[in-house]
Design goal:
The complex is a heterodimer. Chain A is an alpha/beta fold. Chain A contains 18 helices and 24 strands. The longest helix of chain A has 18 residues.
Chain lengths: 525, 313
């Protein structure tokens, strides 16, 4: 049944048929804010179409209109040339649209097959036909070249596989236009590549894909057409094959990109951080760490590369005092930190920007001022003999917000009202305020738009220039190249390679990480 | 097989049945994403209505029917308050428990003219399963029980299958786990949750009826005596899985039956009455310690922060 529908639409595309989906003159305001203003978007059948822009440019709003989550104040939505009225995502699903949200909407305790068929279940005599559901998943995954075990529980799967489940969910509901909202934000480099292969395969089979992203590299790598948004209006319509990164970036931010300058500073003095022979056994939910040693000197950024889940998180948590290693030592300025907890280590000069910003890095419901006071609340001027001074916290927060250029409506608003980039700047401001000797950073620009990412890189390099030592974990090769003086590649809990930044080309790093990707793929099962 | 042991099994099942009904209702609510701690009040409501209507009509079966209907209606407080109006389910449920306790005592005094215990001579209990007399094993285990006892066990198994093997069961599991995702696929979350809460009320009505027309034939003020809370503990221990709920309730029933035995050898009643609660406490603590220890090995950060470590896998 599905096969015939798919082939029918494939035929239609041959003879100048109407576009699979089209937005005409879409305007949408939220209160006083004009989110999108008269935007036209044409998604030709069987193409991969990038919708790019910085955070707040209106791309999410536009996709929400296309998927029936928001009703536009003006404008039309067309499917196959006919106007459709979408008052909810259900209407959108019925009209053959599908969307993979940035935060997956999956049921963790259910199996892959159960998630895919949910509310569109194959039934036999009123009873859920599990085998038919599993066959359906296998058939759909085979069609677009995915490898997914239909009987696996979703919460046991890595994020990349969960995303495939979301895609299968949309395909099971016969989606002909698939919206992928920032699909690579949660993926490792290897997973990104295989996602793009799948996207390409779907397009060949007649599915139209709208890829929402703010990463220029992905636009150039994976798409056919590009529509660039800035401040709610279209600033460029490009054909990928005929454009350049510079052109896209300029349309996105309205000026050329000035990459953070990374003059390799002279590394001097005794190492700030010395990790030697740290090991940790593999445990459920944690990777092993085997005999890792490294040192970070003042004025040096040491980058840790590798596919996520190869022991980077565990290593970092050992350094900051969240985990106790089975063997090995961590020294700061030559002092053994064994047995010291997080607070003591912070007092001795370790600052930490964790990867999980909403969960670990910040308290989203608290105000910006409170978030900036966290960790400084036991010492003057904010804390004095167990009493807090909210006024001192606000004063300090106002100063930090000003100095780092955090865009916020004030220091009393909840942190959750800030964009990803600005929230990350708050975390950085708090941690840099220590003037700690060592800064441990994980994924500093994850979920942060291009402009803010640039500023965050500059802040980190300034910290280094003042003589700070940085241990940087990142899954983005470009970020490591922009910031690090030396790069260590972690592979299955070991340091597989150590490279000078000058030698750490995409090819060399990529090769080490692809190698490690194969190793973990076997290990995770 | 030893008759004494079979008699013990019979006692376990009879003790477990009221708790099992309530716990199954609680587990169903948990699966739908509504944390129901009103089980105590719902059981009490069922127990009272069963006796009052059973006595008034002269038919214990009408009493059971009335218990089911009245407790389902009583559950609308939770359904409307916590689901439709989005009030805190804990607060609504605490109110329901206090209301049930006060209201049953009040109505008993005012309408039935009794204080403490209501056991008029005209009150008939539910009949035993006399038909099973003479059947080996089954006769000894269920012959002196009401039909509501085996029904509870059957319902536990049926509920487990229903959740796992039907599309409605699948949707219900999804509703509780990730309501936004269920909504985005077109499942009416509020309707599912309200229906589940009312259905759980009906189950509690059966449990209450078994307590006041099966286990004994009387209504006593606060006669549930914490059974609803033990059911809440069983639900949490079993993480909303019906078959595990069955196991937890059988454990509780065994403790109670064992308590009666200890009375027989001369231990004071106050002490033996505490046995089931003691067992519940010990099992709850042990399960927590075990889960947390396993989790600590895996992820120390999450282990310290998790309020419900057993939900992390």
């Amino acid at each position: 049944m599905t096969g015939s529908t798919a082939s029918g639409t494939a035929h239609g595309s041959a003879a100048g048929a109407p576009p699979a989906a089209e937005l005409r003159g879409i305007t949408k305001r939220f209160g006083p804010v004009l989110a999108v203003d008269g935007v036209d978007l044409v998604l030709e059948r069987g193409t991969v179409h990038a919708v790019v822009g910085e955070n707040g440019a209106g791309k999410s709003t536009l996709m929400s209109v296309l998927y029936g989550l928001h009703r536009p104040d003006a404008g039309q939505v067309l499917r196959d040339g006919r106007e459709v009225r979408l008052s909810s995502p259900l209407d959108a699903i019925a009209a053959g649209l599908g969307m993979v949200h940035q935060n997956f909407r999956l049921f963790g305790s259910l199996t892959v097959a159960e998630n895919v068929v949910y509310r569109a279940e194959p039934r036999r005599f009123g009873v859920l036909d599990r085998r038919a559901a599993e066959r359906r998943v296998e058939e759909l995954s085979a069609r677009i070249g995915l490898d997914v075990d239909p009987t696996a529980r979703v919460d046991t799967l890595p994020l990349g596989v969960r995303q495939r489940v979301e895609i299968l969910k949309a395909l099971h509901r016969q989606a002909e236009v698939l919206i992928l909202d920032e699909p690579t934000a949660v993926l490792t480099p290897g997973e990104v590549d295989s996602l793009f292969v799948v996207v390409r395969r779907m397009a060949e089979q007649g599915t139209t894909v709208a890829l929402v992203t703010h990463k220029v590299r992905e636009v150039l790598e994976a798409t056919d057409r590009v529509t660039v948004l800035r401040d709610g209006v279209v600033t460029a319509r490009l054909t990928t094959a005929e454009t350049t990164a510079g052109e896209v970036v300029e349309a996105m931010i309205g000026r050329g990109l000035v990459p953070a300058v990374n003059p390799r500073g002279a590394v001097s003095g005794e190492p700030v951080l010395e990790v030697s022979g740290v090991r940790m056994p593999a445990a459920p939910g944690a990777s092993r760490v085997q005999d890792v040693s490294l040192r970070v000197s003042p004025g040096e950024v040491v980058g840790i590369a590798g596919v996520s889940g190869n022991g980077q998180r565990e290593l970092v948590e050992t350094v900051v005092g969240l985990r106790t290693p089975e063997a090995g030592t961590v020294r700061l300025h030559g002092r053994d930190l064994g047995g010291l907890g997080v607070r003591e280590r912070r007092g001795l000069g370790i600052a930490y920007v964790p990867e999980d910003r909403p969960g670990v890095g910040t308290a989203a419901a608290l105000s910006v001022a409170d978030n900036l006071a966290l960790g400084h609340h036991r010492s003057p001027p904010i804390g004095r003999r167990g009493r807090l001074s909210p006024r001192a916290a606000r004063t300090q927060a106002a100063e930090l917000v000003r100095r780092l250029g955090v865009k916020t409506a004030g220091v009393a608003v909840p942190l959750s009202s800030l964009s990803g980039g600005n929230a990350q700047k708050v975390v950085l401001a708090r941690e840099l305020h220590h003037e700690a000797a060592l800064l441990v950073v994980e994924q500093p620009t994850q979920g942060v738009d291009v402009g803010a990412g640039e500023e965050i890189h500059r802040l980190l390099l300034e910290y280094r220039a003042r003589g700070g030592a940085v241990l940087l974990v990142s899954y983005e090769i470009s970020e490591l190249r922009a910031l690090a003086d030396r790069v260590l590649v972690m592979l299955d809990g070991e340091v597989a390679a150590e490279l000078d930044a000058a030698d750490a080309t995409d090819e060399v790093l990529g090769a080490a990480m692809v190698h490690s990707a194969g190793a973990t793929g076997g290990g995770e099962r | 097989m030893d008759v004494l042991n079979l008699a013990f099994v019979a006692a376990v099942l009879t003790s477990a049945a009221p708790v099992l009904y309530a716990a199954l209702g609680g587990a169903l609510c948990g699966r739908a994403g509504v944390f129901n701690i009103a089980l105590e009040g719902q059981l009490l409501c069922g127990a009272f209505t069963a006796v009052a209507v059973g006595w008034w009509s002269g038919s214990p079966w009408l009493g059971v029917l009335a218990a089911v209907v009245s407790t389902a209606v009583f559950s609308l407080v939770l359904a409307v308050g916590a689901v439709a109006w989005r009030a805190d389910p804990i607060i609504v449920a605490v109110g329901m428990n206090l209301l049930a306790l006060g209201l049953t005592g009040f109505v008993m005094r005012e309408a039935l003219d009794a204080t403490g215990t209501f056991a008029p001579s005209g009150l008939q209990g539910l009949p035993d399963l006399d038909a099973l007399d003479g059947v080996p094993v089954l006769g000894a285990v269920l012959g002196r029980a009401t039909v509501l006892v085996p029904l509870a066990v059957v319902l536990a198994v049926a509920m487990s299958l229903w959740l796992a093997r039907t599309s409605v069961g699948l949707r219900l599991r999804g509703v509780g786990e990730h309501p936004e995702a269920a909504t985005s696929l077109g499942v009416p979350v509020t309707r599912y949750q309200m229906a589940t809460v009312v259905l759980a009320g009906a189950l509690c009505g059966l449990g209450g009826a078994q307590l006041s027309l099966g286990t004994v034939t009387a209504f006593t003020e606060n006669m549930t005596a914490g059974r609803g809370w033990v059911a809440v503990a069983a639900v949490m221990l079993a993480v909303n899985r019906p078959l595990w709920v069955l196991g937890a309730c059988l454990l509780f029933g065994a403790a109670e039956a064992w308590g009666f035995r200890l009375q027989g050898i001369g231990l004071p009643q106050q002490l033996t009455d505490a046995a089931p609660y003691l067992v519940t406490l010990v099992v709850l603590v042990l399960s927590r310690v075990r889960v947390r220890r396993r989790l600590r090995a895996a992820d120390p950060v999450a282990a310290e922060n998790a309020a419900h470590p057993e939900e992390i896998r």
